[in-house]
Model the fold of this input.
Amino acid sequence: MPSLQDWLQDVANVWPVAWANRATLIPILVGIVVFEWVILSFWYSGRLASKEAEIRLQDRQLADYREKLHVASPAEAKAIEALEQWLRRFEPRQLTDDQKKILIERGRVYEHHELTII
Done:
């Protein structure tokens, strides 16, 4: 495989011939540049459209988030969520039918004694 130095030497050797045929060289170079521009433009337009769609989605999610929580910042939302979790620990809970039956059965044992349920 030729080294970079070999390649540069080949270009230097061919350059006088290529420059002598400017009428052919310039349109070829312009064509190469235009072709690369078209390919890169097409490729980047797809990437740009994808990124714009992601940004719009995130903007909608953020707007929904703010609308639902009525807060100004994510820190406030996090504080509210932590407070809600803390309060859920103290909410009254409902007994299932099975739990009620067990309590009634065990309560019958203590008919004449005090029964405390916590």
Observations:
- The first helix runs from residue 4 to 20.
- The mean pLDDT is 85.
